[in-house]
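Quick one: co-fold with adenosine monophosphate.
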Amino acid sequence: MSRYHDAYRFSIKDPEAFWLEQAKRIPWFRAPTRALDYDAEGHARWFGDGELNICHAALDHHVAQGRGEQIAIYWDSPVTADRRRLSYREMRDQVARCAGALRDLGIVPGDRVVIYMPMVPEALIAMYACARLGAIHSVVFGGFAPRELAARIEDAAPRVVITASCGVEIDRIVAYPPMLREAIERSAHKPEACLIVQREHQRDACQRGEHDWHSALAAATPAECVPVRATDPLYVLYTSGTTGRPKGVVRDTGGYAVALHYSMEAIYDTAPGEVFFSASDVGWVVGHSYIVYAPLLRGATSVVYEGKPVRTPDAGAFWRLIDDYQVKCFFTAPTAFRAVKKADPEARLLAEHNIRSLRALFLAGERLDPPTYHWLKAHLSVPVVDHWWQTETGWPIAADPLGLSPMPTRAGSATVPVPGYAVRILDRHGEEVGPLTQGSVVIKQPLPPGCLVGIWGDPQRMREAYMSTYPGYYTTGDSGYFDEDGYLFVMGRTDDVINVAGHRLSTGEMEEVLGAHPAVAECAVIGMQDALKGQLPMGLVIPKDGFDGDEAALEQELVALVRERIGPVACLKQVLVVDRLPKTRSGKILRKALRHIADGEPFDVPATIDDPTSLDDARAAMGRARPGADS
Ligand code: COA
Ligand code: AMP
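Sure, here it is.
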């Protein structure tokens, strides 16, 4: 039996003993004596009597252990031609000052702080400062529009919001404060204060209730770490569901810290002092877990990157970063490498850099498509690991456990379930299916530490959204199968969530925007396959009877509306006016049929459509044949 198999069996047979053992690997103010309890809703709560502070475990503890001069973060920003490095001691000191400034603004344990920032070191400092005080942060991705930010402010009800004067995209400067002001205007909840980090590319004059970050930190007295219970929330992170109402995933503190630390050893095989680079954004779960918290909990160094994989200045950006910072473990989304592959198909730029430090490449956020997997395998001599997880779980569900026993990877597979996760495949009756049969991928309860503990402000919603379809199991929303050797293949969502450039988006939310337009009678948004971004949303709309405007103008107006309401991240660039949509007899839009049409697959469709096998057929069947139009 391999180390992996031993660990896996132990974790499933006796999860309490397994996780109490792992809990010893992080510093506590009061070590837990109990592993697992259940809350009133029946959800697992880990390390109930433990007390810690994750900021202490990730920063102060390492300074005390002699890592003060080691680099905690390398910040690299080709879009601003700037770089910075912060040692553990510098990071701890700035976080303590920021926590002092937040305390001066009245923040106490349990208060919420919304963070709406680009990829700058201050975003990490702000997150750790909240943790230091026992406050709950909620980071909102910068690509979301003011309305989306407003919805999150209203739900999280923060006392303070932290932002920066601007973000720098490749082709434009994004001014955050005006968007924040608009969001606050729209929100019924009004934060008491805002802190603004001024960036020289575009400064912003603070208005009433707004404070300059640098002056506030300079005036503050550093704050110490506040002990919190392991079960206290560390953050709320909003993610897309099947409706337009975003779900605030609540993460606890102790279970998360233990799980992340475990993953750095068992999965990513990263030791203290080594360099870990995750090319994501602090606004996503990958950023929370593997830019901000896990590398520093492990005493490693995290690379924080403000830029894209290509065009900054070229498609060799990742190779350059690995070379410059001696990265050992690199993690990004497959879409990023599809962009690199497109720009540099022969990987010629790789030869310009020395990437011998690299020991493993991890990919997640969407399925690693076999062509990209094979391209990476052909050009790199390190394990290329597709691993699968989601915002809700906070850390990988299935992976190649490089730190336990590396396994041969297989194209299209996320390898094996990680210790702690009892992954099963169920059919629609809730029966477990055998190898090579596709079904719903579920996790037998209890969920391991680190996974969501609730939905913010809505205790019932966790049960309804995840626990009620198959009692005793957490429903991941993905479908997939095991092969005969126990390798897991995750094939796609069973709901209306789509994955665009590794970003999770709700088609339901886009439909709400399209459907609210006065000229639209009915609509559907589907995910179309896209060679670069994996999926791209496309809207299909039926105008109201009597609509006699210009259809092309309506389509463009609807595209602009989604960008304005949800934000550029929605990437909805195509809307098509149609005469009808495939429906069931009871009048429900057949989304499954639309999805199959979008994927170009044959599908048993209802009478309104005659065996369409391509989008053009579907368009024709839906009443608008436009050969050659934007497919
Ligand atoms: N603030 C403001 N706008 C933002 C933004 C931010 N933080 N992030 C993205 N946007 C904008 C982009 O500028 C773009 O606007 P445009 O329509 O005017 O061009 C739009 O949102 C869509 O962004 P994106 O989907 O990222 O497209 P892209 O063409 O800029 O880049 C990739 C495509 C594949 C290179 C990029 O998405 C990528 O590197 N993704 C992989 C890494 C990742 O983030 N994974 C997430 C989870 S692991
Ligand atoms: P997010 O919550 O944004 O991390 O998105 C999670 C969803 O992305 C999952 O439920 C999957 O649908 C998809 N996903 C993430 N990683 C993978 C992967 N390695 N293979 C297949 N799908 C993935």
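If it helps, Residues 88-104 form the longest helix (17 residues).
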